[in-house]
Design goal:
286 residues, 8-stranded mixed beta sheet, 27% strand
Length: 286
């Protein structure tokens, strides 16, 4: 199978839409202020100091705000939502961020790049690097009871990724779980490496992953750092999406959560993810 570039991935997925049932929650002035502030933060490169009491009150409201935030960004940036990033995919991170389960953020075509990539550090605020395993689907997964084997058969290819987790919030360490969701689940950018179609014999639970900065190891981990390992997390996510009526579709990509401790990166560094049989991937921050 041909290696699909980021541009090809951009055009392979349908544009994200806002479920009509979520729109009524976003009519309040406070939620509009929050979304306006997050978008202005990105445009002006100044973090948003959101006033107390304007954030979403629940996870459902947080996801509703995320949908509108994504729609507003797509109007501004162009492109599409091409998939999903999973966050808080281990118990320690869930506890630290105030979640009871892994959460979801968008992968936008405008923020997706082929490795080796060079990006401006000044385009990000926190700029935390996470080494993750990504999947691209070759067929839809409409069932709420998709088996592990059915999900395996639906995967067209897997690839290493480096996620730039970021926040547009001034108080990014303690904003509360619903506000993290409104802030795109800390989505910043995604760098994708060369895909692999014949991956089925790789044990993603024991897969050793290492992140280096300018040749020096800064983080180590394995696929087991992801709850249920990357494949198991994809299975659960596929069932969850089907259960809410928005199943995963052919062509979409899913980055399944970090296999290494998060690393805050600086301008001038070259970050390299070493994924053993999945290969390597690099990103330079200018």
């Amino acid at each position: 199978m041909k290696h699909r570039t980021a541009n090809e991935l951009h055009t392979s997925c349908k544009k994200s839409t806002i479920p009509s049932g979520l729109r009524p929650r976003l009519l309040g002035v406070g939620m509009t202020v929050l979304i306006d502030g997050l978008i202005a933060a990105r445009n002006n490169r100044q973090p948003f100091a959101h006033p107390a009491g304007i954030g979403p009150a629940s996870l459902a409201d947080g996801y509703a705000a995320q949908e509108v935030h994504v729609a507003r960004l797509l109007e501004q940036l162009g492109g599409t939502q091409i998939g999903y990033k999973l966050g808080a995919t281990n118990h320690d991170t869930m506890k630290a961020m105030g979640f009871d389960a892994p959460f979801t953020g968008p992968i936008l075509s405008a923020w997706t790049h082929n490795a080796p990539a060079s990006l401006q550090r000044s385009d990000f605020f926190v700029c935390v690097i996470e080494a993750e395993v990504g999947f691209r689907l070759g067929r839809d997964l409409p069932s709420t009871t998709s088996t592990r084997q059915e999900v395996i058969e639906s995967v067209a290819e897997i690839f290493p990724t480096l996620e730039i987790a970021d926040s547009r919030l001034q108080d990014w360490k303690n904003p509360g779980a619903p506000t993290i969701l409104a802030d795109l689940g800390n989505a910043g950018a995604l760098v994708i490496g060369s895909p692999l179609q014949n991956w089925h014999k790789i044990d993603l639970d024991t897969l050793a992953v290492e992140l280096s900065a300018d040749g020096e190891t800064v983080a180590r981990g394995t696929g087991a750092m992801v709850l249920d390992n990357p494949l198991g997390r994809l299975v659960e996510f596929a069932r969850e999406r089907a259960a809410i009526g928005y199943p995963l579709k052919a062509g979409e990509i899913v980055s399944t959560g970090t296999c290494t401790p998060p690393y805050p990166a600086k301008a001038g560094q070259t970050l390299t993810g070493h994924f053993g049989p999945l290969g390597t991937i690099s990103l330079t921050l200018l």
